[in-house]
TrEMBL record, chain A:
Residues 15-224 form the ABC transmembrane type-1 domain. One of its GO terms (molecular function) is transmembrane transporter activity. It comes from Micromonospora saelicesensis. This is Amino acid ABC transporter membrane protein 1, PAAT family. It comes from the Bacteria. CDD domains: TM_PBP2. The keyword Cell membrane applies. PANTHER family: AMINO-ACID ABC TRANSPORTER PERMEASE PROTEIN YHDX-RELATED (PTHR30614:SF37), MEMBRANE COMPONENT OF AMINO ACID ABC TRANSPORTER (PTHR30614). The chain crosses the membrane at residues 15-39, 60-81, 101-119, 159-181, 201-224. Belongs to the binding-protein-dependent transport system permease family. HisMQ subfamily.
From TrEMBL, chain B:
It is a peripheral membrane protein. This is ABC-type polar-amino-acid transporter. Belongs to the ABC transporter superfamily. GO terms for molecular function: ATP binding; ATP hydrolysis activity; ATPase-coupled polar amino acid-transporter activity. The keyword Nucleotide-binding applies. It comes from Micromonospora saelicesensis. InterPro entries: AAA+_ATPase, ABC_ATPase_HisP-typ, ABC_transporter-like_ATP-bd, ABC_transporter-like_CS, MetN_ABC_transporter-like, P-loop_NTPase. It catalyses: a polar amino acid(out) + ATP + H2O = a polar amino acid(in) + ADP + phosphate + H(+). CDD domains: ABC_HisP_GlnQ (cd03262). Its EC number is 7.4.2.1.
């Protein structure tokens, strides 16, 4: 088990990179998922069709395949991924600016994939609001946007937050794939480096990596349980 | 009640048809409602009366025919439809007050967000309306803290806050405990005598008798009878209306 102490810096570095990926991907997926959810519940049929197709494609495709498309398809648009540079984010998350473009490709794949599930979690919250609420808002002359903003969304987020949390937890675990698509040094790629390159025994390394993921996911799960309990009391 | 109709009618339905799948829920319905007129729609359940009421502000789109409000055909979607709906008050069977907002916020949301009124002015008018329907002391409570009758009166105040040209009532007393029906009907009767144009779907025959200018009887999606209440209740012309009245009036 010495590897956990001797190579603590390697584990910590992997943890830090995975955390960065997860924070960026969560933000991206929440924003994109919210947009897709609005499309899916919009009163305009073509917009609805766009939202529905998006969910059908990305919810039903294995993440590995989405990663393949991102890592081998996106370079066709420019192999250094300059078209994906975001000035302020690059300086906050240094790996965005310096690393191989695979960091960004993997991030895009994770965002696209997770957004489909975020959309459905948000929509399940919207569906939990009785239809009469939106009907009453429409009868007053509120537009679709006002209806969402003032009537539906303030009531729907409570029902969305628990499924949304599960989606983010799943995303954190899914991020383990990025190491196989060119991203160097994330938490799960650490295993590969320590076992095949440096010859450490696999089980202690795997335990170290598991701990890294648990540090991210367990507190998130506990937070969700608390929110759920408080809701149950309020009801 | 005298004939208060003046000028062109406010609401006109012309040969309106609607299907729910194979069910012909509105079958060639034509109807016009004059300004200031109170029209009560009655009929057995499933006769299409709620659908008729909801079609007037396009909560239910229709398959064919035309509906005109204040001289304009109903817009399809978007801003023009929202504007039309802001001019037609709607009161639902299940109240549909916004559960996360106080009674006063329920009443002022439309005026502030749709009409862009100043919040202070909207609140003042909202309180006056709540006073008019007798629940000014409940202004800061949430809907779930009120009785059904109070909630429905708040819903009427919410609709009135938009200063609508007409009010639609979709079975406003059907979800209420019997002792609360009266307080809601009182508010509706006072609205009617103030000259509000109203379309009321109801089972309250007393209200139909004393507050309506006309009674519409619907069955199987068709508009079967259209007569002043005294005439309709004393002398229904159709077999179906006689049958319906005999069932509800014998108890």
């Amino acid at each position: 088990m010495n590897v956990l102490i001797d190579k603590f810096d390697v584990f910590a570095g992997g943890f830090w990179l995975t955390l960065q990926i997860c924070i960026l991907a969560a933000i991206g997926a929440l924003v994109l998922g919210a947009i897709v959810a609005v499309l899916r519940i919009s009163p305009v049929p073509p917009l609805r069709a766009v939202g529905t197709s998006y969910v059908n494609v990305f919810r039903n495709m294995p993440l590995t395949v989405v990663m393949f498309f991102a890592a081998f398809g996106l370079p066709a648009l420019g192999s250094n991924a300059d078209f994906l540079r975001i000035p302020v984010l690059d300086s906050l998350f240094t790996r965005l600016g310096t690393d191989l473009p695979y960091f960004r490709f993997a991030l895009i794949a994770l965002v696209l994939y997770t957004a489909a599930f975020v959309c459905e979690a948000l929509r399940s919250g919207v569906n939990a609001v009785p239809a009469g609420q939106a009907e009453a808002a429409r009868s007053l002359g509120l537009t679709f946007g006002q209806n969402l903003r003032y009537v539906v969304l303030p009531q729907s987020w409570k029902a969305s937050i628990v499924p949304l949390g599960s989606v983010i937890i799943a995303m954190i675990k899914n991020s383990a794939l990025v190491g196989f698509f060119g991203v160097v040094g994330d938490l799960s790629a650490t295993a590969d480096q320590l076992t095949s390159a440096e010859g450490y025994a696999f089980v202690p390394v795997a335990i170290g990596i598991s701990l890294g993921y648990l540090i991210m996911t367990v507190p998130l799960g506990a937070l969700l349980d608390r929110i759920e309990k408080r809701q149950a009391v309020a009801r | 009640m005298d004939d208060v109709t003046t000028g062109e009618p406010l609401i006109v339905l012309d040969a309106v048809n609607k299907w729910f799948g194979p069910l012909h829920v509105l079958d060639d319905v034509s109807l016009s409602v004059g300004r200031g007129e109170v029209v009560v729609v009655i009929g057995p359940s499933g006769s299409g009366k709620s659908t008729l009421c909801r079609a007037i502000n396009r909560l239910e789109p229709i398959n064919s025919g035309t509906i005109t409000f204040d001289g304009q055909p109903l817009p399809a979607e978007g801003k023009p439809l929202a504007k039309l709906r802001s001019e037609v008050g709607m009161v639902f069977q299940s109240f549909n007050l916004f559960a996360h907002k106080t009674i006063l916020e329920n009443v002022t949301l439309g005026p502030i967000k749709v009409r862009k009124e100043k919040p202070t002015a909207a609140r003042e008018r909202g309180l006056a309306l709540l006073d008019r329907v007798g629940i000014a002391n409940q202004a800061d409570k949430f809907p779930a803290q009120l009785s059904g009758g109070q909630q429905q009166r708040a819903a009427i105040a919410r609709a009135l806050a938009m200063q609508p040209k007409a009010m639609l009532f979709d079975e406003p007393t059907s979800a209420l405990d019997p002792e609360m029906v009266g307080e809601v009907l009182d508010v509706m009767t006072s609205l009617a005598s103030d000259g509000m144009t109203m379309v009321v779907v109801t089972h309250e025959m007393g209200f139909a008798r004393h507050a309506a200018n006309r009674v519409i009887f619907m069955a199987d999606g068709q508009l079967v009878e259209d007569a002043p209440p005294a005439e309709f209740f004393a002398n229904p012309r159709s077999e179906r209306a006689r049958d319906f009245l005999s069932k509800i009036l014998t108890h």
